[in-house]
Design goal:
The chain is an alpha/beta fold and about 325 residues long. The chain has 2 domains: about 5-165, no CATH class; about 165-315, 3-Layer(aba) Sandwich (Rossmann fold). It has 11 helices and 15 strands. It is elongated and about 70 Å long. InterPro entries: MoCofactor_Util/Proc, XdhC_CoxI, XdhC_Rossmann_dom.
Length: about 325
Amino acid sequence: MENVDARVLRSARDWLASGHRVMLVTVVKTWGSSPRPVGSMMALREDGPCVGSVSGGCIEDDLVHRYTSAYGDACMRQSRPELVRYGVTADEAHRFGLPCGGTLELLLEFAPALSVMDDLVQRLDAGQLVQRTVDCHSGLVRLAETSSPAAVHFDGASLSVTLGPQYRMLLIGAGALAEYVAVMALFNHFEVTVCDPRIEHHDTWSVAGAKLSTEMPDDAVRSMQPDTRSCILALSHDPKLDDLALLEALYSPAFYVGAIGSRRNAHSRKQRFSEHFDATEDALQRLHSPVGLHIGSKTPAEIAVSAMAEVLAVKNGILRHSA
């Protein structure tokens, strides 16, 4: 499943290539509670279709109404971007459905260049991590390849957003728990690979969109070439498989490494890694085990919710390492 940013940019590129006028909208600042974070984008075509989101829906409706009118047609023919703010007053916050008086500031780009947009989409398709910088006065856009994600930067004069390939998830073990985790990861725009060398587990795997690998788990981790947008979850319940993946993953740049099991099993695994494989304390501190946030989960579906919630919490900077 393609991530939202890529879908917005691809739609904008395709509309421009078809001769349409397009407005690209980016959230550059928020105050108070906000339904969408900075960097969120939408693309609006001059005749009304839009893709992406900058709010819960009401602001999108207002943008469509405003910029598909005669006034909007004139705006969308100009080259200079514009900054607009929603939710400044309590009445506006109520009108646009912004919670707790939240306020959004948006950058409207009325004339994104087809050549630059096409270059950006091609770079993303090639798996590059790209920093897109917009001059808020002239509308000039610069693209630069970067090695690591960076926070959205906006100073009133320019906007820089890091765009890149999908977050990736490698699951070890093709059991029921992995099926639930894979489904939720796909809905959260992760690219999912499931590794299980046990052929007997393949016939029952039924999650469309998740790749199935028969490699040994440590080979699967190496093949993945984990980066800071990658996570690895060992879910097979078989130490012979899970440990192979974990010993490889703990020394990778992956933002999350987790393993299923009880607290007792987690303690035994860390002790085993330390005594027999010389795992460092720093590496062991990276291991989330038992995997997931504590929600009293019992069933595979509930455990998957717990695991996915923890992955997202680490991805979003709410959690840094296991307790």
